[in-house]
Amino acid sequence: MNLFAELRRRNVLRAAVLYAGGVWAFGQGLSQFSPALDLPDDATRWFLIAAVIGFPLWIAFAWFYEWTPQGFKRDSEVAGNAPSRHASARKLDFAIIGVLAVAVVLLASGYFISSDAPVETVAQATPAKSIAVLPFVNMSGDAGNEYFSDGITEEVLNALAQIPDLKVAARTSAFAFKGKQEDLRKVGEVLGVATVLEGSVQKSGDEVRITAQLIDTRSGYHLWSEKYDRKLTSIFAVEDEISKAIADKLRVQLVGGGGQSLIRVATTDPQAHALYLRGIAEIARRGVALRDAATLLQQATARDPGYANAWAGLSQAQELLPWYQLADWSESLAAAEQSAKRALALDPQSGEAHAALANVLRDRLNYAGADREYRKALELSPGSSEIRNQYAQLLNAVGASEAMLQQERIAISLDPLAPNPRYMLGFELVIQHRYPEAAAEFEKVLAQTPDYAFARFHLALTRLYQGDDDAARAIARAAAQQAGQDPATIDALLRASADPALRPDALKRVSGIDRIEIAKLDDLAKAFWYSQLGAREQALASLQRWVTDAPVGQRFNGVRWLRLPTFDPLRDDPRFRAALRKMGLPYHPGTGSPGSVEEKAQ
Question: Which class is domain 124-265?
Fold first, then answer.
């Protein structure tokens, strides 16, 4: 008998269509409801594998058994053209129609049913060529080797950030997931990336094993995985292999084309490399850890004077020390400049070294020189959120508003969980009198980082500028308490800002202030509050003292404060213009950018 005719007679074809329709409908539902049900990333994949395995079993069952009113019977027990066969066929037809209807409804709902964060919007906003390098797990059995696995992670991340067409989530955001078993779909949505790299590092003596796997955050599929067993002397080659394999898998053109290495062999001394990794780990901690960072990086450069990365890291640590009141400004900036230039002499193509030198020049108010170095750094490391954020702060200080906003928004897209880029974005929006937008940015910072007192203080100022005095005082009291300041003092100053009758008492309080938000700014703090309270002459006198007496790096930190709306009443005064010129800044009305950084520096 013809096989096709026999398949029809036994209703096997209908059973196959029903099975396929059921798999399709269930798969549609699984893909749509997995996030709500918190199912594993690979639930859909395992269902499809099981469905494929089950298909021949289903077909075999349909061949040997017939569905009758009395239940399932072997085919040999049912007559060839028995009415029960036709009844079974009709039931299968209805079942097929029902299953296909459910599948169509689920498919349509995926397109037309929206939520607060539609899947389509997320997909469009996430570039296909994008990646987050999650912290590699330390498998060495020794917590003291944590710096090593973190360092490997950071070096691979930095290598990938050199690729112009690849979006790489920055360190702060990627390391926010350290030690957490997060659903990779959530990681992809939060960081705005289509893939993640995760792995482990096992170090024993001079041997190291690195495993790495590249995963699609949308499907959960493993795109690539590899294991490397190497000597520590070849660690850079392993990092380069990993970076190139990822770039190839994502079909991204490597820097310079061809097989050019993304990671240079920076040192042949494993101990110098270990000291460097420990040093950059301490830099990431900030605060007093910067002293240890400088010491470790000095030891690394002593072991290998030709280690450019270590010199660049040392420059970064030295430049940061005075910001945390851990060293003298002049001495630290001189040492940081020397270290940055040493790094550039060894490796002129180091984006980190150019950025380190730019930070020094910026602190010294050499705006044009800093601008050139930042641009060069971004040319070499276009995916670095940190460099963009530092450059944006320079642009903010000199009034290049639109360029600043552009750089900071790119930095936020690369490092969405880092508080400082979004805080600085809000700061610039306040300067432009775009208060609702600024408040929204500060609130986002506080939602992610509740202890970020800078953002809370500026949210209070924004509410004050908006005329919401009660909200401003409530937020400012919380910010003062968080920063270890007196809530009653800040409350009294803000009350007096709104009520001239209270100003005489408030002005007495100002004379005793030596801090504004967290950083100690002395006479600039007084100039700020005097101007806020309408005491023009006292504000200008305090400003002139600050411009003359403040350390150079601290002056750069305060430059951007002079652009806040608080100082608007003073902008036309010749003494205010003279203060700006003394800091290398021209007088310019309004909040726009009158010219390039080079023009401002002249």
Answer: alpha beta
| Intervals of CATH 1.25.40.10 along the chain | 372-601
Looking at residue 600, its pLDDT comes to 43
CATH topology of domain 372-601: 1.25.40
Report, as an integer, the average pLDDT of 516-534: 74
Write the DSSP assignment of 503-536 as a string of letters: HHHHHHHHTT---SSSS--THHHHHHHHHHTT-H
Please give the helix or strand (H or E) that residue 203 lies within, else none.
Answer: strand 195-204
Q: Give the range among 79-83, 213-217, 316-320 with minimum mean pLDDT.
A: 79-83
* Structural Rg of the chain based on CA atoms: 32
Pick left, alpha or beta for residue 534 (phi over 0 → left; psi -120 to 50 → alpha; otherwise beta). Answer: left
Q: Which residue has the higher pLDDT, 488 or 12?
A: 488
The pLDDT mean for the chain works out to 81
CA distances from 157 to 56, 126, 177, 409, 478 (A): 46, 18, 15, 20, 37
CA distance 106 to 92: 21
Is the pLDDT at 191 greater than 80? The verdict is: yes
Q: Which residues pair with 207 in a beta bridge?
A: 204, 231
Residue 118 binned pLDDT confidence (cut-offs 50, 70, 90): very low
Ranges in the chain annotated CATH 3.40.50.10610: 124-265
pTM listed for this prediction: 0.70
**Angle, alpha carbons 265-271-272 (nearest 5°):** 55
Cα of 288 vs its chain's centroid, Å = 24
How far is CA 323 from each of CA 288, 316, 389, 526, rounded to the nearest angstrom? 11, 12, 16, 20
> Cα–Cα distance between 410 and 388 in angstroms, integer?
8
